[in-house]
Amino acid sequence: MEKILRISVQDGPTKRPAVIRKYNENMGGVDLCDQMLSFYKMSSRTKNWTTCVIGHFFDVAITNSWIQYKSDSKVLNRPAKDTQQYLDFKLHMAEELMNNTYLDHSSSEDSEEEYEPPVKKRIPQPEPYVRKYGAMHMPEMVDCKHAKRCRNMGCKNKTYMRCTKCKMFLYITKKRNCFLDYHR
């Protein structure tokens, strides 16, 4: 290795390969994109790799758009003060994407009204006179896959116990008796 190094030094300066010359002429775009990406990266609290990769691709697309916008501004002889800075460009793009809807309602000719997602069926609370009426209310253990939320006001516990009359799921333990509170 020393012999090769000595030979190249003795021969004088070596010529730059054409590939290196071409790279140096056109290196501004990639380096500028990497530099701008390091300033304002999209952040997320997840360590999920797919979310991180998608966020990075959005960052690269926005950064390349800004670089193209800046070069177009130079071609159009737009003054530098009228050309948006990178962060302003990114924020403006985000606002536009949030404000604009790209749904084409003309393509769906069969329905004129807006789409409404299906509403989850919820059993309505019974009238107060039914709730508080006598000895007809009895708790029963329901065999269902997942426990249901207690329907007593202020209780967020889950239970398998249901009133036979009201059909409301109500939490019952030694410390808390929502069944009794609900029917008083």
From TrEMBL:
Q: Domain PiggyBac transposable element-derived protein: where?
A: 10-66
Species of the source: Electrophorus voltai
Give the top-rank taxon of the lineage listed in the UniProt record for this protein. Eukaryota
Check the record and name the InterPro entries matching this protein.
Answer: PGBD
Pfam families to which the protein is assigned, alphabetical: DDE_Tnp_1_7 (PF13843)
Q: Write down what this protein is called.
A: PiggyBac transposable element-derived protein domain-containing protein
